[in-house]
Amino acid sequence: MAQELKVGDSFPENVTFTYVAPTGELDLTACGLPIKYNASEEFKNKKVVLVAVPGAFTPTCQVQHVTSYLAKLDELKAKGVDQVIFIASNDHWVMAAWGKANGVKDDSILTQSQLFMSDAGLEFSKSIGWIQGDRTQRYAIIVDHGKVVYADADNVRGSIEKSGAEGVLSKL
């Protein structure tokens, strides 16, 4: 049974995502091996904005959603955000290519700004009840040292009001 996250909840245990580490190159055809990211453990020691989108390279996700965060990274960092992580139901190679297409090319993103990961099989998104068919719903969760301080989903198609950088910044 899905359990929607609420402010004040601890971030769930046993949540993992997969990603392909940036290689320093922006060549979309170069692939690495997937790495498991233990979000439950990692989120205990930092302030993270977890952003879910229906799909990499899709119109709203690329044109509005990702660009809102790219434009506001300095403001997010000034509010104490250690990491912004984008997840989608796409596999880790597609997510890595999407990161490269948006200029992510080195491991400094692990501690400084953005990372693109896969919610393979929608495992996490299903567990919190935020899916649309076979894709992740558009949502944002702020986790501050293991505690959920904001969690909301956009229910209007094409809207990033609650999950875009502006909406998230207003909650930090």
Rg, Å, rounded: 14 Å
Structural class: alpha/beta
On the 0-100 scale, what is the average pLDDT? 87
C-alpha termini separation: 30 Å
Low-confidence stretches: 107-112
How much of the sequence lies in strands comes to 25-35%
Percent helix, as a range, is 25-40%
In spatial order, strands of the major sheet run 5-4-3-8-9
Task: Give the H and E element order.
Answer: EEHEHEHHEHEEEEH
Q: Which tags fit this structure?
A:
alpha/beta; PRX5-like; 6 helices; 172 residues; Redoxin; 28% helix; 5-stranded mixed beta sheet; two-stranded antiparallel sheet; single chain
Would you mind describing this structure in some detail?
The protein is α/β, with parallel strands linked by helices and 172 residues long. It has 6 helices and 9 strands. The protein has helices at 39-42, 59-78, 92-101, 109-112, 123-127, 165-169; strands at 16-20, 34-38, 47-52, 83-88, 114-118, 131-132, 135-136, 139-144, 147-153. A 5-stranded mixed β-sheet has the order 5-4-3-8-9. A two-stranded antiparallel sheet has the order 1-2. A two-stranded antiparallel ribbon has the order 6-7. The radius of gyration is 14 Å and the shape is globular. Mean pLDDT is 87; it is low at 107-112.
